[in-house]
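One thing: mind reviewing this one?
=====
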Amino acid sequence: MGLTEAIGHAIKQCPVPMQPHLFNNIVITGGSSKFQNFKERIIKDVRSCAPDEFTVNVYRPEDPIVEAWKGGQLLSGWPVYPSIRVSKSEYDEHGANICSKKLNDSIPVSSGVS
């Protein structure tokens, strides 16, 4: 599975009401996102796997190399962060499922998309 297929697949695993918002707000980060025409190719390829009625937008931050780090920094300041943080020992003991469990237990999910 390639990158654009993975993006489409991940979005299609989310609740249907959220999907148009996710296709409309794809963010690419990291050094590879700076390759010539990378953003345009992602738009074109994701567009081909998105439903016709959805808008596809891809954003690349001004400094994509550090943007993921900035997101982690922002997350670490949220009051809920201590309850969702997963230590290496927890991960080693429970595997990747511990991440979903902690998120599901700590962050309330609304019934609709606003």
About this structure: The chain is about 55% helix and 5% strand. The first strand starts at residue 26 and ends at 27. Residues 18 and 113 are 6 Å apart (CA to CA).
